[in-house]
Each structure stands twice: as C-alpha cells, then as structure tokens.
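Quick question: what would this complex look like in 3D?
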Amino acid sequence: MLKIAVLGVGRIGKMHAENIAAHPRASLAGVFDVHGPSAKEVSQKLGVKQYESAEAVFASGDVDAVLIATSTPTHADLLEQAIAAGKPVLCEKPIDLSLERVNACAARIAGTSIPIMLGFVRRFDTGHRAVRNAIASGAIGDLHQVIITSRDPGMAPASYIEVSGGIFRDMTIHDFDMARFILGEDVTEVSATGSRLVDPELMAKCADYDTVTVVLKTASGKQCIINNSRRAVYGYDQRVEALGSGGMAISENRPLNGMRLYSEQFTDQAAPLMNFFIERYADAFAAEISAFVDAVEKGAPPEVGFEDGRQALILAEAAMLSISEGRSVNTNEIG
Amino acid sequence: MLKIAVLGVGRIGKMHAENIAAHPRASLAGVFDVHGPSAKEVSQKLGVKQYESAEAVFASGDVDAVLIATSTPTHADLLEQAIAAGKPVLCEKPIDLSLERVNACAARIAGTSIPIMLGFVRRFDTGHRAVRNAIASGAIGDLHQVIITSRDPGMAPASYIEVSGGIFRDMTIHDFDMARFILGEDVTEVSATGSRLVDPELMAKCADYDTVTVVLKTASGKQCIINNSRRAVYGYDQRVEALGSGGMAISENRPLNGMRLYSEQFTDQAAPLMNFFIERYADAFAAEISAFVDAVEKGAPPEVGFEDGRQALILAEAAMLSISEGRSVNTNEIG
Amino acid sequence: MLKIAVLGVGRIGKMHAENIAAHPRASLAGVFDVHGPSAKEVSQKLGVKQYESAEAVFASGDVDAVLIATSTPTHADLLEQAIAAGKPVLCEKPIDLSLERVNACAARIAGTSIPIMLGFVRRFDTGHRAVRNAIASGAIGDLHQVIITSRDPGMAPASYIEVSGGIFRDMTIHDFDMARFILGEDVTEVSATGSRLVDPELMAKCADYDTVTVVLKTASGKQCIINNSRRAVYGYDQRVEALGSGGMAISENRPLNGMRLYSEQFTDQAAPLMNFFIERYADAFAAEISAFVDAVEKGAPPEVGFEDGRQALILAEAAMLSISEGRSVNTNEIG
Amino acid sequence: MLKIAVLGVGRIGKMHAENIAAHPRASLAGVFDVHGPSAKEVSQKLGVKQYESAEAVFASGDVDAVLIATSTPTHADLLEQAIAAGKPVLCEKPIDLSLERVNACAARIAGTSIPIMLGFVRRFDTGHRAVRNAIASGAIGDLHQVIITSRDPGMAPASYIEVSGGIFRDMTIHDFDMARFILGEDVTEVSATGSRLVDPELMAKCADYDTVTVVLKTASGKQCIINNSRRAVYGYDQRVEALGSGGMAISENRPLNGMRLYSEQFTDQAAPLMNFFIERYADAFAAEISAFVDAVEKGAPPEVGFEDGRQALILAEAAMLSISEGRSVNTNEIG
C-alpha cells in the first residue's frame, strides 16, 4: 500500500483524498490545508491524520508520496520541497502561471529520478484514451487533423477569472496537453483567435477572452484545432476528434443518463451533459491515481510529467502572443 | 422501356405514376381511375393517355404491364383480368381482405408464368434490406429473435377503420410480410394480444384494436415480435431489429432532417420522424418499381409475389383467432 | 451512520460491502460467509469484523441492519431470522425459487414494520428511472406499451443453469419487476413463448429455454413485451422503452467508452456494451444502498419491498404455465 | 411552368436537367453542350430540344430562364450573355476563379433586376438550413462559434486539381458561403493554415494544400472554423455546428442507410457516409431549383445571388494570403 498525503483539500483535493482512500493499492496518509477546518472535516470523515503544515507532511516517515492540490501559486514551491524531501509527487496543473517560474523549478529539480506526475486528468478518460489508442494501433492510419472541443458549462466567478492568468492558462491548458497527447508530436506553430461574447465587460476588464480558437501545427504538418467557450448552456462539452488517412475516431460527450425522449415536437432527445469536471472525469480521476501508484511502485517516469506541464504553458504563451500580434507564432519564439 | 399503365391514381397511385415516368427503363403508358377528374389531372400533368376503363387498359397494345392501385375490393378482380390479358402486374397490398377470395384468385391464376408482384414496399427500404442482408451474409450468425416496431403517426379516419378489415389486415399485414422477409422461414405459431387505448370507443365499435403485440414462431424456434400502435405522436415509427448468434442488426428510424439541438434542458434532440409512408418509403417505392421492371424484363418471378400476399393474410387471420381464443394458434389451423 | 453487516461475500456481496463502506451515511459493521476465507479476505481488506455465524450477526448490538447476499436457498430463512432479531433487511433477489416458500415467509413476517427491501437493482438505474419519471411527470402521456429488452452477454455455467429454477426465475425475474415498476399497475395476463436456440442441448436437458418472449397485460390494457436471450455476443443488452399517448421514452444501452470509430467500411462504430451487471449497474447498486439507508433512517417502507419480490415470482410462474399450455394465463390462476 | 434550358450537361448539368423536368412548376426547355453527344443523349432521354449553341438558347423565345453548368472558365461569359438576353440565370459556382474577372462581370451586370442565382446548393440542405433556422428563431440565442467540417471522400483527379485554382477556390468556396449563410454577418478577419498530408507530391507541385483550417471572424467577434480534407475514407463528411448563448445546433452526417450493426467487437456501427455530393445533396439540388423558380416567378432577388459568389471568392483570396504571410488577413485588404 502506497501511503499518499494530500495537500489542499478544497473541492478537488477532497475528491482526490477519497479516491486514494478507496484505492486497492494506496492508502490516505493524511491531509493538510492552510484552512484548518477544511482539513479537519476531511480528516475526520476519512479517519486519517490532519497535518499541521506542509513541512510536517514532507518530514513524516508515514508518508510515501504527496498529492498537491493547493492553490496554484503554491504548486512550484511545494513541488520543490517534496522532491527535496524525496517524496514522489502528483501535482495538480498548472505548475505555475509563469513560464519563468516553471523554468526555474525545472532547473532546481533537474536530474531527479523521483517520480513527478502532472494532473492532466483528461488523458485518463476512457473515451479520449480510446482515440489515442486508435491512432497508436493504426486503426485510423496516419494522423492528419485533430479537433478538440472544450467548453465549460458556465463562467467561473469573476474573482477566479481575475487571477486565473487568462483563458489559455486556466482552461485551454488542458486542451494544449490533450493536443500533445493526441498528436504525439511536438507543436511548432500556434495561431489563435479570441472574442469577448459571453461576458464582454469582464473579459475586457481582465484583458481576457471567453471564446477562443487555437490552431496548432506540427513539423510534419499535422493540425489540431482547439475551440473553447467559457459557457455552453447544455453542459460541459468535451469532445476529441481525430482524422487520419485510414479513418476517424471521436470521443463523444456524456449525458447525465441514458434516457431518450420522443414527443410530437422532437425525437431522440437526451439529457444535458454531465456538469462539471468532477462528475465528467470521475473515472479518469480514479484512473489517474492508479497511474501514479503504478509509476511510484515501478519507480518509472509517470505517463504525464513535469515537462508536459511546461510544454502546455509554452503553447499558452504562444497563443497569447499570436492574438496580440495577429500572426502565427513559432513555439521556438517562446521559452 | 417497359410501358406500364397505372390503375387507380389516388395518393399512392399518383406517386407510382410519377415514379414510373421518372424511371430510366420504364415509361408511363397511361392511367385510369373510376374518378375521371383524378385520372385527368394526372394524365395532363405527366402528359400521358387517360384510359376510359380498366378493360381498355388490358386490351391496349401500348401497355406492357399494369400497376393496380385501386381500392382494395377491386384488387383481386383486376389482377385476374390482367393475367387473363397477359399483362404482368404490380398489385398494391392486400390482394383482398378475405382469405377465401384470395384462395379463389390463386386457383384462377394457378400455373401462370406472367410476373405478379405484390406491393410490400418495405422490403425495398435500404435499412430493412440491410438487416436482411446482414442475416444472409452471416454477419449476425444464426437468427434467433426479431423485433418489428411499426406505429402509425396517427389514427386513420374512422371511415377507413370501419372498412379496413381490422388492424391485422390493414396495418400489421406489412409487418407480417416483413417478418417473413427477415425470418426467411415459415411461421408456424402465432400469439396475439390486443388493447384499445388510443381510441377505445371507435375500436370497440369496430371490434378492432389500436395497440397490438403479435409473437410469431417458426418451426426451428426463431421468434418475431411485432408491436403496433395506431398512433405514435412523434411520427411514423418503423424499426426492424434482428438478434443472431453472432450479433445484432437494427434498421433505425428516420427523422425529418439531420439537425440536432442542444439547450439548457436537453442535448442531441432530433426532428420528428418522417411522416408518413410516402415520405418515409419514398426511395423504397422507387426501388419497388425497379424490381418490378427487372422481373418483367427477365421474365422471372418477382422477389415478392402472390403467395407472399396470401401468407401475410394467413398470419392476420391467425392473429385474430389467437386474440379471440386467448391461445397460441398454429398456422395450419388457417387456410 | 447506519451500521450494516453483509451476509455472503461472493462477487455481489463483496461489491455491496465496498459500497456500504464508501457510503457517506452508512458504515460496514462486519461480514459473514459460510466460506470462511472469503469473509476473511473482505474483512481484512475493508478493516471490519468477520462474524462466525449469521446468528452472531443477528445477535450483535453493533449491527443496525443486514444485507443478505448469500446463496438463494438461504434467503428466506435468513430474512425471517433478521426480522425476528429486529434488523432491517436488504435482501438480494429472489426471496426463494418456490412461491410456496415465499408465501410461507410472507405469513411469518406479516405485520412487521421493520423495513424489508428487495434487491431489484435495476430500479435504481438512472436511465430506467428516467423513463419511469417521464411517465410519472406526464411527459409521455398515458402509458400504452412497454418493451423491455434484456439479454445476457453469455450463458451462465451449466452448473448454475441446472439449479437456477429456469430462465423466468433466474433472469426474467428482473424484467418482471421492471415491468411492474414501469407499468405502475398490476399485471393480469401473461403470455409466454420459449425457444432453445443458444444451447439447445442444455436447455432440453433442463427443460428450460434460452430465448423467450413474454407479453404482459394490465387490467386497463397496457402491454409490456419482455424479450430475453441468454447470449447477446455484443454485450449486456439492457433497454427499456415506453410508448405513451404523448410520446416515447427509451433507456438506451451503455457502451464501454464514448469513442466512435469511422473507416472505409463503416461509420459511428461504438465499443461493445458494458459487461456484466456489476459494471452496467455499478451506479445503481450504490444508489440502492442509499435507498435502503433512507428507508431505515425514516422508518419508512422501502421503495421496493417483499411483496414486489413475491409478485415477480407470480409472473414467472404464470409465464411457465403459459408456455406449457400454449395459452394466455390470468395471474389470478397463480398463487 | 417556367421553361428552363440547361447549358452544360456533364454530371451536374444532367442532374439539374432531370430535376427541372421533374419539377411541378418548371419544364426543361432544352439542353446545350459543347460536347454534342452528351447533349444528344440527355435531350433524347428527357424528350427535349438539343440546342446547337448557347447563343441559340439565349435567342430562343421558348426559353424563360437558363441554368449554367458548363466548365468554370465559361461561367462569367455565359452569365453576361444571359443577362444581356434578359434571361434569369441559375449559375453553378464559382462565377470565375479570378476575382478580377468576377468584379468585371459585376460591373457589366450592375443594376439589372433580372434574377441571378448562384448554385451554392448546401444552403438548401434540410439539416444545414435547420441550423440556420435555429439561429434565426432564437433557439440557440446569440451566435458565438461555428464549426464547419467539410471533407471530400477522396482526391479529385490530378488533372482537375491542377486547374482548380487551389483548395480554397475549388472546395472551401462552398464552406465560405456556408459560413456567411450561418454567421449572418460579414467576415472581417481570415486566418488560414494549410498542410500537405494526403498527397504531398501533387500538392507541392500545384502549390496547393489538401488539409486546411480556416478561422473566420466577424466584426462583432463571432468565430467560424472551417476544416477541410481532400480525403476522408469514411465518406463525404459534411457537418455544420453552431454554438450560441442559449444552446447548440449541429447538422449531422448522413450514412448510406439506417442500419446499425452489433457484434462481439463493436456496437452501433453505421454504414459509410453518402458519397458523393450528388447523392448527399440530392434533395438540396431539387430544392435549389424550387428556390430559383420561386425567385423568377416573384421577380424577387434569389436567396443566394451574384454578390454571395463574389464574397466567397474574397474569402478564398484572403485565406491564400493568410497562409502565404503567416498572419491574420483583414477582408478589406482583398478586392
């Protein structure tokens, strides 16, 4: 049993703690949160220790590994401390909003063989993964074009938007990683378009966008189109489509239930989509823990690592530059 | 070019006349209808001769073959006359509502080599036919169970219901033929259940049913479930499902168009189903003409012949007997 | 927290034990199994007490309620003992294969106000339940016709088939309960058809069937068609369709993942269906525990009770009689 | 009856001629083709006059209107002649490959009130049109983002590619018009990406692309993503998706038939897509003739006119410029 402690038990951290507790080859070693009452509630419900500080976690002999689900600005520091303490890490994305900080972190942890895994949970979705497997197995031939549709069911609160680092860093970041996962090849060119249609005032205030399209291209010419909206009223829209020389694979959306309704006005009506990521990716979050446990047990590099987090951030910066200059940006220009 | 005359140009006959006129290997030789103005309108629109009587059609040297789309009680007489005149016939179903009359007709035309085709148009639907082909090709292994769902979008007028011969002869008759087409084996047992739910008063008055289930069984044990309703508000529901030892094939419904709608309340909503048979089976009606032209050109027995019409009627009688006696009926007990 | 002990920790009992342990308002009070090692394994993994006997469970002050997941022949006895001990019960179906035994059990527990819930898990499936809600809310008007398609992915072992009590009691029993759940009205007539197509030899040896169709009818004329096969190679086929005067609702199947594949030969191909009931009804099994906890907490009769188990068995007996006599059977003739 | 002559009876012209002949309010006034035998064949089959020259058609008092389906380089000349002769015109797209020539043509026909309709047939597809109607009716709120997926089933012959004017003018041109149809607002910015993946050699030789993505933006910020491939092995992929503030509408693909296949390896497999445009848009081509007849009868401007053809060409030129300069292009920079 791998004893994993969870740092940060907000909505996501709490869910991770429960998944660890339920995992057949892992156990929950304890929790910590700067907001004591949150940590207390989770520790009591799951019957585990509440640590008084992150340092105490890193120092504990009862902790084999840590999961970092604290607020974004603390990720890089905690990650560095965990590595210094010799604890394998599963860190929620992003590593940091600043590429400079990420690069500094990379320098500090360079050469470590301690497993570091990034929480790009969508890689563990059975549908998205089946698309990738279809490519890997040759079922759709050579890959030509990818379309990632990723739309939130509704705007995050203004307080979050204001500090999120912008749509490319708070939302598209997942799709940048998905693009890399599906393309299986480095992206060389980035071309982005942004609009303010859902909440023009807030977006203008934050110099941000709520409706964006990003076109990525690899050296061999493979294309990936990412389209995002901060609000799709029909639910959390999460689709991945891959066109190849021999066919196409699409990971479709998931409605709340399997019922279809027919009436005088319509047929085949389904329920709204699962809403939101904790529901939609519930199975993927559990599979992510398994992948982390596997990596630590084998001492192998996790399937999605630190460099994947850094590369996604580079694509986000390239997209921002592309919009501001109205041109295609080469990823070599960044980072 | 096969010169085909159409007898009876009501809604169905008119559609047949247009299909014949548009057919690459057939031409419309003329039309006749006891209601002169109907025949006149069609003859003028399509630029063909209006015959003064059915006899004139049969006597004409300009007519190679006839399509009978007159009222049901005239079918058997006209069919006999056509055969006597040596004209191949495509006759709308049913041959007659009375099995006795059909048997008499069979006796009179016994031994003829003149092609006689019955208008069981659903056999020519690309979806239903693909199900049959999936069985024939072995794609689903040995056939075990068939489900035919067949529901009208709304009640026919009371005036029609009162003389239709009952639901098994006016509506299920198509499904009995489809069952035979899909089963590919004689039906030996019939068990039927009827309810009066759509229009209880009219149904009671006519000693008829508006909601029925019929279970058919062949000698080898293959089962076919037919379910009918005289009113499905979402449109003309026409599905055929076949379960085999190696898989399943389903012919699905067709909505009016390919648009899917998503909103805050629902996802993936399609349009109502095509409504009614002339729209739903438009392609099949055209393919039926082709099959008739093929059969006449080759002098071969048509794919669906007189005996198919008689067998469907036997199943209808068996279903009626099953309901009245509350038991499974062997088809040997009929006809 | 409701402390629930689990009797019988085979495949289903173990799954129930895990669901109880993970439930926010329940805790696992311990387990018992006549096969000691099985109980030991589960007790160790979940960190709970292993009881030495069912009697010890019933006598324990640490047990608030019991879940019976032992072999079928022990259900009725254990249920009676639980009630005698004042423990609320969630009992896996069926209560017993013999209607006589069930009736005796009913007599012994008559008048008890202790909650007894039957494990007809499909009632808790979100799709099937949405169909029922669509009926209850009036979304499809008055109910006319129900079609329940329920096919196992493959034959159970011969050793199971030989003692299962026949397809109506081992498999259709779930569909009989689903029919009652969806119809919302007592069934008065039962008409069944059986074939031996999947494994004719074994079926003949057991005087059983592997492919059956049962048509149920209520006093008001509502119809329900159940079709079963002991082997659908494409997976566990579980569909419920309800036609009403105002529309239709269908609970569709669930494939293993959301990927669709396109190639030169086909389009829109989905994965095989979830296989088998523990996967397909995973959410429903968890919801079932919640419903039981709710009922016990409120002291209210569970949504699905002892009498539901008895009624399903009556329909199974009626179906057997219908096949053997080739006629429609009135449920008054049974029990 | 509107008497329409068809100029050019290759594959498309012949289909138009048949649709006109079958139209209830139009008749085929005759045909002309520079390749005499083609014209002769069609004229004989449909029983209409074969004209000896385009001039003879324009001079004829028996011709009310003309449909131009000749080779692209002749479109503008014939269109000008038709207008000079006072004949309403339905002209296949494009007007010309050269924007200069189109502008010259526009100058020559300026001020005419004679109906001129462009053959952007996809506007008449029931699914695509339903998407537009969903927007117009407010069913999906304010429009935010459009995705047009448009992929040919296979490469056109090299001989065609070499003179086609490039993918934006031979293929995307339809999608540019569809974008304008759906957006309902002028496009101001164009950003394009092109790859050579299907047939890199031929594409390089022609300085063309076989895999392209174009992102369009309107003044108000609405986005439209067009993705094209010259080869989708699963058939002719034609989808239109519109995201709005209140929902989403998608026009889905059409398989060859309605059959779904299930096996041990997969479920819900559909047939390949309709292949190619004459099959896929058969209904739309017929509806296009109706729209033309309507416009001429009412003397009203057709729904899709000369300027629509010119605007689509401007977008094609903008896309080419965008690729060559690796930047977003403002439509004001063109034409």
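Answer marked as accepted. Chain C touches chain A at residues 22, 24, 45, 126-127, 129-131, 134, 139-140, 246-254, 256-264, 271 (CB under 8 Å).
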